[in-house]
Amino acid sequence: MRTDQLAVSAWSQPFFHHALLAGTFIALAAGLVGYFLVLRAQVFTGDALSHVAFTGAMAALAAGYDLRIGLFVGCVGAGLLLAGIGRAGRADDVVIGAAFAWILGLGAFFLTLYTTSRSGSMVGGAGTTVLFGSIFGLNGDQTLVAVLVAAAISAVLLLIARPLLFATLDESVAGARGVPVRVLGLGFLALVGACAGEATQAVGSLLLLGLLAAPAGAAVRLTDRPFHGLALSAGLAVGEMWAGLSLSALIPSLPPSFAIMAAATAVYGATFAITPALRGRGRAPGTGPRAVARPGTAADPAEGTAA
């Protein structure tokens, strides 16, 4: 009964309302972006950006600026850099692997600069906040910024979804038909960077990859129809965000970032039990929409078929 009372009390507090509003839009953007990240086999990019998020935030704090400036500038800049270095606008895994360890070390350097040059009770917790998130610590202004940024990311991604899907499924044919494949690749990784910077506030840089990959991975396993999968990925991400925040309110000792990722992991794990049953009905989900695009054919992104 005491736990229920604590939960009711938390759910009625402004900090929970801010977290729920910001978390909903952040999860929506992460679900949409993450679906294409998985579909384009660029999940490793999300891992690299998690390191950049920490380093960018620490650099901003060390220079005396708001950490969100460092998050967005660092993540978007890194996304564009990786896309530019990688061939045809796709980030190369070798490039990412060679860079992200050094970037994380640079973040530790900036954290040391910040802690040695500043004083106060919040200095020691700055690194922890960036690493593990602080969604229950958002105020009204921060919530508004999070909502607007996440809504803009979602709107832009939906605007370019069809050509981006075509370029993802069959890059050669898309290029031959006039689709700006490289520009789309650059723009998409810029959106990934912006989403990474925004999502860091919810789950932290260490768990950022899970919020981008787990709902999308579950959606890819459950359906081979691209736009159905895109909607499912977004819906799962939002539902997991709500479940995690509610669970954290119900159990105050449970960090919200852990609860969110526990819900996302549980859903993804459940797909391994669901997909065999779907296969028994004559479908074989889990192959992904890429399986329907064959070289030399014109894919129909909306229906997931090849003509």
Automatic annotation (TrEMBL):
The alphabetical list of record keywords is: Membrane, Transmembrane, Transmembrane helix, Transport
InterPro entries named among the record's database cross-references:
ABC_BtuC-like, ABC_TroCD
- This protein's superkingdom? Bacteria
Q: Which stretches does UniProt call biased (Low complexity)?
A: 281-296
Report membrane topology: Multi-pass membrane protein
Subcellular compartments: Cell membrane; Membrane
Q: Does the keyword ATP-binding apply?
A: no
Q: What is the lineage of its organism?
A: Bacteria, Bacillati, Actinomycetota, Actinomycetes, Kitasatosporales
Which residue ranges does the record annotate as region Disordered?
281-307
Residue ranges crossing the lipid bilayer per the database entry: 20-38, 69-88, 94-114, 121-138, 144-167, 179-199, 205-223, 230-251, 257-278
Entry protein name: Metal ABC transporter permease
